[in-house]
Amino acid sequence: MSFMLSAYHNSYRGRQMQDSFHSSRISGSGEQPPTQRELQLADAMDWLMRLEAHPEDVALMQQHLDWLAASPQHQSAWAHACHTWRLLQALPPTEAIVPEPQTSLVTANVAVFPVSPWAHYARRLAGVAIAACLILVTLPSLSLFLQADYATGIGESRQISLADGSQLYLGADSAIAEDYSGKERRIQLLKGEAFFDVVPDHTRPFVVNTGKLKVTVLGTRFNVVMGKLSESVSVASGKVAVQNQQMGQADTFAQHLLAGDQLTIANNGTFVLSELAVEDVGSWRDKRLYVQDAAIADVAATLQRYHSSRIVILGSDMETQRVTGAYDLAAPDQALESLVSPYQGKIHNLMGLLRLVTR
User: Where is the FecR N-terminal domain (predicted)?
Assistant: First the structure.
């Protein structure tokens, strides 16, 4: 990667950026010393090289995570370094055929250049850089899963029998924490989606907390999902009470939901009560997703839990577009295409690691 680091140095018009891991600052005659920002960027590029050279070194990965957590400036420099993969789009392609438009940002009229000796190496670096960028995205998830009593991976779901006999169906890439020690049976949904089949106990209410909602029941069947722009509760049978917990205002509203009711609360605190067919409540257990007047960003967040590549939507106008439809969770790529194509969304497959949605 030394050629890439040299190019990165040159982008700062000849300013010398010294690697703080391996060398001390050198003052050249007539040259300005490197700024703190430049040194941090050099460190970030060094991390790219070290992680690429030792991809299975767990200790090195932990050191890198510690470096990221030490300073917001480190995180900013790391994000900046990761973006260098975009520059590689201008390098000669390593294949003899131009990629299809739907799977690449390269347009159909780009000329095909001969493969240079270092092109394969550059392509490998691009893949490493994209993968490294995903570390920043997954850091919050790692923290949540450390708090969890139960968690699932991408595309995985679990049925869990709780201590009181209640059944919990945990959706893909989801996590919960359990607390049955007090007068209430408490579940904290940390991430994702869960369906609950609760055994009645009038002496100990069953409570589910999310970032925005507090759901209280005695015995019922209901689904709770945390999306990107909103959270929602839908009821399959029985009755639930829902409170808004945003900004500590637990009593701002209380809404009793019956079978077929769905309550959605947005990040800005507004909420909508709608109807949903009872058989569609928690339909993700059968790999089916039905949504009504949902934001594309929230639907994409559900699809993300079934997709091994990171889904990124560029533009708030696309994210906030409202949709109603049915999607097959067993085929997340097809579902994503069905989700965004009616709104002129284009999906770019970046080296199998990212699905970038643009207009």
Answer: 43-83
Closest by alpha carbon to 230, among 170, 295, 140? 295
Full-model pTM: 0.64
- Contacts of residue 182, defined as CB under 8 A and 6 or more positions apart, other chains included, come to none
Percentages of the chain per state (helix, strand, coil), in multiples of 5: 35, 30, 35
Closest-CA residue to 65 (of 56, 75, 50) = 75
Position 254 scores a pLDDT of 57
Pairing between β-strand 221-226 and β-strand 230-237 as defined by DSSP bridges: antiparallel
pLDDT one-digit tens code per residue, 296-338 = 999 999 999 999 888 989 888 899 999 999 999 999 999 999 9
Instruction: Kindly state the average pLDDT of the residues 60-74.
Output: 80
Measured CA to CA, the distance from residue 340 to residue 359 in angstroms comes to 9
Q: Which residues pair with 313 in a beta bridge?
A: 357
Phi, psi at 86, each rounded to 5° = -65, -35
Measured distance CA(98)–CA(113) in Å, rounded: 10
Q: CA-CA distances (angstroms) from residue 64 to 45, 71, 356?
A: 12, 12, 26
Q: Are strands 185-191 and 206-209 parallel, antiparallel or unpaired?
A: parallel
Query: Nearest Cα to 165, choosing from 123, 196, 128?
Result: 196
Q: pLDDT tens digits for 286-296?
A: 999 999 899 99
Q: What is the mean pLDDT of residues 41-58?
A: 74
Rounded CA separation 128/49 (Å): 9
How many distinct helices (H) and strands (E) make up the chain? 8, 19
